[in-house]
Every structure is written in C-alpha cells, then in structure tokens.
Amino acid sequence: MVYSLLVTFGIVNVYSATFKETLHGLFDISQPVGKQVFFLFFSLFTGIIILIINGKFFEQFAPLGYIFGILLLVGLFPFGKTVSGATSWYNIGGLSLQPSELAKVTTALMIASFLSKFQTNLKSSTTLLKIGGYLFLPFLLIVLQPDPGSALVFGAFFFPLFREGLNYAFLAIFISVLVLFFITLSLPIGAVVAIISLLIFILFFVLKNFNPKIKIWPFLISLMVSIGFSFSVDYIFNNVFEQRHRDRVNIVIGKEVDIQGVGYNINQSKIAIGSGGFSGKGFLKGTQTKGDFVPEQHTDYIFSTIGEEWGFLGSFTVIFLFCLLLFRIIIQAEKQTNKFRRVYSYGVAGIIFTHFFINVGMSLGMVPTIGIPLPFVSYGGSSILAFSILLFIHLNFDANRLQ
Amino acid sequence: MIRRFFLPFVTLLTAVVFIGKLVSLQLVNSSYKLLSDGNAVIENFIFPERGYIYDRNNKLLVSNQPVYDLMAIPENIAPFDTLELSLLLGVSLSELKNQIENAKTFSVKLPSIILGKISKERNAVVQEKIWKYQGFYLLKNSVRSYPIPIASNLLGYVSEVNKNEMKNDNYYQLGELIGRQGIEKYYENYLRGTKGKKFYQKDRFNRIIGSYEKGKYDVPMKGAQNLILTIDRALQHYGEDLFQNKRGGIVAIEPQTGEVLSLVTAPSYDPNILVGRKRSENYRKLALDTLAKPLFDRGLQAQYAPGSPFKTLNALIALQEGVIDSKTSYICNGGHYYARGRFMECHCQVGTHNDLLSGIYRSCNTYFANIYRKTIDQTGENTAEGMNIWNKHLKSFGLGNFLGYDLPVGKKGFIPDAEYYNYWYNKGGWKSATVVSNAIGQGELLTTPIQMANFTAAIANRGYYFQPHFLKSVSNDSLQKVYEKKTTSIDSLHFETVIEGMHQVVEKGTARVAKINGIEVCGKTGTVQNFMKINGVQTPLTDHSIFIAFAPKDDPKIAIAVYVENGYWGARWAAPIASLMIEKYLNGTVERKWLEDRMLNGSLLEEYEKPYSGKPFVVNE
Fold this sequence. Notes:
The complex is a heterodimer.
Chain A: H1 2-17, H2 32-52, H3 55-79, E1 81-83, E2 86-92, E3 95-97, H4 99-117, H5 125-143, H6 148-152, H7 158-163, H8 168-186, H9 189-210, H10 217-239, H11 243-252, H12 264-275, H13 287-290, H14 302-335, H15 339-363, H16 381-399
Antiparallel strand pairs in A: 1-2, 2-3
Helix pairs in contact in A: 1-2, 1-14, 2-16, 3-4, 3-5, 4-5, 4-15, 4-16, 8-10, 9-10, 12-14, 14-15, 15-16
Chain B: H1 2-28, H2 31-40, E1 41-46, E2 53-54, E3 60-72, H3 82-89, H4 93-106, E4 112-118, H5 120-129, E5 136-145, H6 152-155, E6 157-160, H7 163-168, E7 177-180, H8 182-186, H9 188-192, E8 196-202, E9 208-211, E10 227-229, H10 233-242, E11 248-254, E12 259-266, H11 279-288, H12 298-301, H13 310-321, E13 330-332, E14 335-339, E15 342-345, E16 352-354, H14 356-361, H15 365-377, H16 383-395, H17 418-425, H18 449-460, E17 464-466, E18 471-474, E19 485-487, H19 495-507, E20 522-534, E21 537-551, E22 558-564, H20 574-587, H21 593-601, H22 605-609
Parallel strand pairs in B: 2-10
Antiparallel strand pairs in B: 1-8, 2-3, 3-4, 3-5, 6-7, 8-9, 10-18, 11-12, 11-22, 13-16, 14-15, 17-19, 20-21, 21-22
Helix pairs in contact in B: 3-4, 10-20, 13-15
C-alpha cells in the first residue's frame, strides 16, 4: 500500500520534473516518464513472480546471487557504458541497467544467509572479517566505477549487524567516528584536541567516583587514538579528498557559502523547497522545477520538486510514508522466527533508511551532496527495479512467515 | 532492547529533524519564496506610446516618431564583416566591437542593444542590409517629434529617469523615460499612461519559457492621453520669430478664461536637438550657456522691475482708497522733489497740468509720485499701515506670489510691505518719500512677465482674473478642471478711467506705434533701469523695453506683457512686438509689414555683448 503510494507519487513528480511541451503521454518510452512507467510495470511483474516463488529458494540462491551480482559489477569494466565519468551502466536495447542497485539485493541476501547458515558468532573476529569481506568486495567494485555515493550505501548493513549482536564498541566507534569527523572539520585542530581531552578526563573522573579501582590508561589510549584520528581526518580531508568532496562537506557544515559554484545545487534545492510554502505551488506549477534551476531534479533532487509543488503537506506526507514503510518492515522483521529472513528484512530497512536519510537530507542541505536516489520516487529504472525486488522478497518472507 | 529499537529510533529522529527543517524552510522563512520568484519569474513591461500634445486649435505641437535600436543575441551572431557593419551604422569599428563585447559579457543568450536610437533615415539603409548579419535585428522604439521647432521650454522634453527619480517613485525602472521641464514634466502621468506588466516563467538561462500562472498577475497597459493646450501654435510661432536675436519674453493670456495663448522666452532652442542619440551632448551645451540661458524660461522665471506699467495699479489703488478721484491733477515741472536734493525726473515739459488720464498716457512720474505718497500717507504718521493697504491691493492681483499655473517652474516676484522696510530702515525710519520709487514701478518691486500679463488681464476684465493655465483639455477625459475666478480688491467702477488712459497711451501717448487700424488697443509702456556688477562695480546697462496691453478695449480677447531685455524705451521694441502679436491673434494676418520686418530683422546681440567686451561702453543709445 505504502509502496504503491510512493511509486505513484514518484511517477507524478518525475512527470513534473521532466515535463516538456513535447511530451506525448505517460507511455512514450523515449521520455523519462515513459521509461519510468515501463520499469514500474516491469518491477510489478517481477514482484508478482517473487511473491509466487517459494521463500526457501532465496535462501539457497543467496550465495549464487551474490556471485552473480559481483560478476555483473566486474563485467562493467569491460562492457559497461560510461556516463559522466562513471562506468556504472549496462546498455540493453536502449534501457540502462545499473548493477550496483542489484548488488544491494544480492548482498543483503548474502549477509542474511551467512549470518544464519553457519552458527556464526558476531563476537568472533573471523566472522567479522568474513562479513567485512562480503561487504567490502561490492563496495570496492562500486568505488572503482567510480560511484562512491552508491558504495556508501553498503554502510547500511551496520543496522542489521548491530541488531544481530554486533559489539557496542562498533556503535561507539561508528558514532564517535562520525562526530569526530565533523567536529574536526568544523573546528581548528587545537580546539578539537582540547575538547576531546576535556571530555575524556571528565568521563574518567566521573567513572572514578563510582568505581575507584578504574585505571586511567584505557582512557589515555582512547584519548591518543581520538586525537590521532582527528589529525588523520584533517590530513585525509585536506590531502586525499578531491576538492569537490571537500566543498560538499564544507557547505553542509557551513564553512563555505558559495551559491554560484558548488553550493548551487543545494541552494537552488532549498529555494525550491522553501518556496513551496504550506500547500505548494501545485502540480506542474513549480517555477524552480520548470525553469530547470535544480540540477538532476528528476533523480537525486526529486524531493525538491515535491517540496516546491506540493509544499509542506507533500513533503511531510513523503517523510511520513517512509517512516510508515520502515516501521512496518522492522516490525515484520522482528516477527520473523527465521534468522535469515529477519536479517534480510532488517537489511532492507537499513538500505531504504540510508537512501532516505542521505537523499532527503541532501535536498534539505543537511547532508553533503551524495548522488543516490530516493527509493521508489526518484527516476531510475534500475533503482525502482532493485528496490521493488528488495521489498517484494521481504513481502514474500512476511507472507510466508509460518512456513 | 537497545539493539531492537536502534533503527526505529534513528528513523524517527531523522524524520523529526527533517520535518523540523521543512517547517523552518517552508512555513517560517518566507525569504525563499521571494528568492524563487526572483529566480524564476521575469516581469516584462508593455509601454503605451506617449501622448501627443496639440494646441488650442488641435494643431500638432508634439508627436512621436519611430527610431530603431539595433539588437543582437551574441550566441546567434555568425562571423561577419565588422568593418562593413560599422560603416553601415556610422559608428567607429572599435565602438562596434566594444558594444558586442559588452553584450557578450552581459549574456550570450539574451538580447542587448548594440546601437540605440538609429534615426529613421539611417534605418532605411540599415533595414535593407541587416539580414546579412545573423544574430542582429532592429527593434522599433519611439521618440518625441516636433513638427514645428517652437515652445521648447514650455513643452519640456523626455529623457531616461535618474536614480533619484526612481527612488522617489517606484513606478519607474532603469532606462524608462520621464518628462522633464514644462508640460512633459507637469502632465507626465497623462502623457505616459500606465505601463502594462506581463509575467513570464524563465529557465535557468533566463530564457522565457511561457507565461506565468496563465497571466493571472498580468496588468493591462493603460493608454497614454493626448493633451490639448491653451497655446495658439501660430501665435507662439510668430512671437518666437519676432524675438529672434533678442532676449526676453512674451506672455499672452485670454482674459476671460485665464488661458495662456503664448509663452515666449528668448533665446530658446530647437526641441528636436533634445531627441535621439545626441540628446545629452546637446543638453550639456544648453545648460552650460550661462549668458544667454536658453533653458531659463524668462516668461515664468525672470524677475524684472515692473516699471511704468505698474503706474496703472498705483492709480487703481489710489482711486479705491479715495485719496484721488479721476479729476485730481498735479503740475509737473519736469520732475518731482521728493526730498531735499532728491529729484525724480520726468519727461513732461515744465508746467504741464496732468490729471489721471494724461498722467497715464504721458506716463508722468510726478503725478504718480504724488498719488503714491498720498496712498501711503493716508494713515497719517503711521505709514506702515498705508504701506500694508497698498501691499494688500497688489497681492489681490496675484503679485508677489506664485500664480498657481500648471508648469513646474516659476518665481514669486516681490512686493514690499511695512515689515520689509522696518527691517531695512528701522521702525519709523522711513516715510513715503523714502520708498517713492515704487510709484513708478522701480525700487524693490519684482514681477515676472506672466504676473504682468495676469494683472493686465485683470485690468482688462475690470477687476477679476482667472488663474492662468496651459491645459485646455485631456483626450478621453471629460473631467474639465474649473478655474477659480479671483476678484481683485479694486471696485470695477475705478477701472474705466485707467483703461481710457491706457487707450490714450496708444492713441496719442507714448506708444502710438502700437496702434492697429480697427482695433482699440489699451497699453502702457515701460522703460526699466537695470544694472550689472562688472568687476565689482554696479554698472547701468541699457534699459529694458517693456509693454503691457490688451485688446479690444471693450471686449478684451488678449492681454499681453512683453519684455525685451536692454531694448531701451518701451515703444522701441516691446510695444511694436505686443501690437503685432495682438494683430496676428485678432486678425490672423499682419498688415503692417514694415513694422514686422523691423522687429524680425532687429537684433540686440551687440547690446548683449557690451558688458562682456571688457571695454567701457555707452548705454541707452
């Protein structure tokens, strides 16, 4: 239900964002909307087949599927089509396919299968290493395309892994890495060192009060590591990142205000969303959208079209629908007794969340520009197909929960 | 538990943060809405053609003519022969290249003006060849056109608005035209109409991609209106011709309505030079001519002493105050001793008996010195009160203040009162003898020619006048402005003797030259002393020649005041010019060709050179 709402809304907005006088209808396959509609039907068709298939098939198919996904990614290097610098597509009869989207599905299945099949223990380092490997392989292949945005989505698997018992230390590291990363970039390195030292010493003395036996050296080590990390972030940011990456990050943390150059997309997107007001300008009436001010509006910046033409109501509805979808998936996942299915469904939720978080956050200017689609809504045949497959497999599992 | 709720919690947190941001962007902060409009909506204006101006007989004074702007869209320009185009346009090669570069800097996708205001004549040639130059095209525009080059100060001109005008009136935007000076300025709102607005949706290259919201916010253009002035084109033209090579002004008024028939100021300029590409250059030349002052409207702005014509008013005041009657007479001994050793000269022969009638037509200084002193002294020792009574009567003729006519420039003139003399001489420090110059229109008095013409009209009407004005009617505007009748403080019965005196001035007095066969003309000459500081020394210049008149005596159709700077006595220049104007207006043609030729050919340019020659010079030759 939520799925169909999102998909329909997606079509409507892709229609608006790519609207031109020359458009003949929804089904003109030479136009973006036509393609999108075509892929939608194809996805629905695929979805129905998936629902019919016995759920056990996916469990057995997982390793094979994973290998197939990896092969497709590898195959891009000799056979792929290069669009704006990234070799990410296969060209099949005029339609482009993006295997990195499919790889999400196969990897989700693989991780789930691995975690359930063997009596794996997430506390053992060999298991962790293996999982790391499964994730790192597609990640590396996609980074090499290069399409770092799509690769970043593999971070989404943190959520199912954490759910399944990944050590809290990883959560702590995950969060502190993020926090350190941003404060290092926002503040001068000296201030960062001072803040970290202060925080750790306060923590130490507070804990010392409760437990006088606690030793100081683990704190000193984490202080050293933190400071070391800060310095390396500083170094990596300034020496390893390319300028455009630096710019994207700088804009979000407010270090740079350049609305003509690199900040253009975000600024125009914010203008589009902001100008929508409460109820929006109405379908096909977005002046920002029609004037093509926001680049990539039918794909990565689809949310700005929604914001402009449907206003706060529309944007709120989209966010609400995504929450609803995610909660349903998570609740259904928790109900699963089968570990494979639970991990898989949780993976689906993680992936959708990651896309949602990055895409909407980017349109609102709160997350650095990372070009990934908004699930079900953005234009992109492979994207809608992959997300449909992801979801329909989950639905299959949910429907056959008692098997 | 934490593991289970981690993702739902993060999801919820994200959703809340996003919605918070949405609230701030879409609901709280309205600046994004404005940014978006500035971004994506373009406002285009449609300008109505500026209104025409006609004279009282519907003869054209100002119309419009097409000019052409050569436009170009840089990205469409194909390589072309720049030299050939520059020759075709009549501009230098470097100027042309410069303009094209500027256009590229502005925008490669939007049109820019390469050369503005190409004349109709040159356009004929350019139009034929422009197809050869891809990316260039001609855009029709319109500028003012004057079929007869007259009345330039009265009509004014148009030019682009400046920053101040844009600040004061948000109707105007950069590059738009506004009326300056004269009728163009005063009736700007009628003449310009109201521009229409059309909103278009534009894309990120600023190209128009369609109308915005189906024209919901568009404002239709409101057409400009044509003006019909009170000016008589033929009379105006004739007056300007008569004034060639002279300085001064003519104001002619229809007494029964207050309509200004002509307003001549000389020297003037050809209004066509303030149109088109050379406008600013020509304007600078006019503005920098501080000697001849062609932009100075002498009819409205020049303040001269009123001279002898002012005697008519002093006579009326004396009659009204009852200090004399029409029979009162004085003996003139060629002048008047008004204080020990102070003597006011007069042209009368020694022993002449003058009553009011002959006092006027002989312009006897002695007579008017006497009746003026009687007016001031009527309140005994308290001359201040007498002075203020005199002042009040003059104010009722519209002197010493703006007349309220519909042109943007003017001067108040000056009529002294008791307070003024108290300030200069201390209270009680002055007597009627001290200020006796006022008796003959000299002294502290200052009037503008239009004030002179106006009081002449009031005399012609026997005691009232209408506010002088220049607008007769507005096309498509039935609303007719009603002009208030202003009654002077002199009873109408006192006018007849004075008017008879003015008639005698023309019949047998100082201005016999102004006599016209078949028309009873009433007039009064004047010869006004004037001075100029040369190297710090107050030096007398040749007197101004002035004349006021109205005609016909019993059914006045025209009242006129003429000032000819440094023309010497009144009958020499001013009276003939006034007389010719009256003849032209009432009869349509002028029979006295000899007089006409003398006026047309007469030049005072040598006279105007004298003070600047650096050598001693003779005045009143």
